[in-house]
Give the backbone structure.
Amino acid sequence: MTSPSLETLTPEIQAQILRNIDSVPAFFSLLRASPRLYQVFRDRKEYLLTQLAFNQFHPEIVEDVWTMAKALQIPQPATKSHIHDIISDFMLVDEDHQQHSIPTSTTAPLCKIGMTIAWFVEDYRRSSLQLLADLGTHMDIQQDTSVLQSDLSVTEKGRIQRALCRFVTFCCLFATPEGDGDERAHYRQNRRYLLLYTPDDVEEIACIRDYLFRRL
């Protein structure tokens, strides 16, 4: 009797395995290593990429991820009409979005930006903890070195992911003003967008902006 392996599982179980992977490199490494899994992927491509794209993010920030995904589809520079549409549909997401398929034109850039955000989350941890360590040394404060070297909790990672998603959305909408000379209208839309968030939320976005200015 042969021992069970990924190759001998039914396609339905193989699809269940693929739909629960939250790492893009791991996902495609499995596909390259297993012809059977690749065939399962081909038969369910849009559905599995939808799962993968959203699995990269904390489950509590799905609305922010969905808003960012829509903002990433906007041609640049964003027009007043595009910005109005995003703000009007702000945080509106199909509750069963992961039960069906989203076109690869949306999931592919979402997978890519998810990998980028994952890198920045870890770099943000290292950078911020180093700043705290330097500040503590400067102020002669006794510090717990184990805390300064600790990993982020799932909740902390989710908060940084959320702030990064919101910053990406903001940049897609407002980084390059529409070339129509109407700076006042652009400013009003900018302000209207930020007012959708609480002051604490805006501060989190500002922290990401300052971090990126410092690092890049």
Notes: Residues 68 and 169 are 5 Å apart (CA to CA). The radius of gyration is 21 Å.
